[in-house]
Amino acid sequence: MALIFAASLLVLVHSAVAFDMGQSTRCVAIPNQMKVCKDVGYSEMRLPNFLGHSNLEREVVPRSEDWKPLLQTGCHPQAQAFLCSLIAPVCLDTFIQPCRSLCVAVRDSCAPVLACQGRPWPEALNCDRFPAEEDMCLTPHAKLNHFAKDLPKPACQNCPAVEEAPSMKKVLDAFCLHDFAVTAKLHRRRLFSAEPEFEVEGRVEFIRQGPLLPYDTQHLLQQWLLINLQCANALVRPGRSQLYVLTGSVQADGTLALTRVFPWHKKDTNIAVATRKWKHHRC
Question: Which residue positions does the secretion signal occupy (predicted)?
Answer without folding.
Answer: 1-18
